[in-house]
Amino acid sequence: MAEAHALEELQSELTCPVCLELFRDPVILECGHHFCQVCIIQCWEAKADELSSCPKCRKSCGRKLRPNSLLCNVVESVRRAGGMNTASGITGWDLEGTPCLPPAAFGYFVFYRNSAGLCELPCT
Question: Greatest CA separation found in the chain?
């Protein structure tokens, strides 16, 4: 069950707090929070007469958006692996968090939950 909690945390970390989807073109603000580039621009355009601030912590910040290439790569890997789940016959973890194979049998994986169930992403 600890694995299921870890998966929920991973999915939460890869989700934009504005659109509640996996990040698309993630950017980081001066405060350290991440958003989809389009989402943060739309938030700021909706409040054009106010100072720019982070929608999450409300700290004032400049409109300088820094792309986060590492986060972008992780999200894209998760997207590509979307079809990799136990329901499709690929071994890994079942929905209760029990390994279908001994952990040593399949090396290192990142596990996450999507609409298809519990999925695995091999780390290379």
Answer: 58
- pLDDT > 60? residue 31: yes
Cβ atoms of 40 and 29 within 8 Å: the answer is yes
* Angstrom distance (rounded) from CA 51 to CA 45: 11
User: The whole model's pTM is what?
Assistant: 0.58
Looking at the chain, the whole-number percentage of residues with pLDDT higher than 90 is 22
Distant-in-sequence, close-in-space partners of 27: CB < 8 Å, separation ≥ 6? 34, 35, 36, 37, 40, 65, 66, 67, 68
If one compares 48 and 90, the residue with the highest pLDDT of the two is 48
The parent domain of residue 87 ranges over: 2-122
- Distance between CA atoms of residues 103 and 109, nearest Å: 10
**Secondary structure of residue 113 in the 3-state scheme:** strand
How many domains are there within the chain?
A: 1
What CATH number does residue 23 fall under? 3.30.40.10
> Quick one: average pLDDT of 57-78?
86
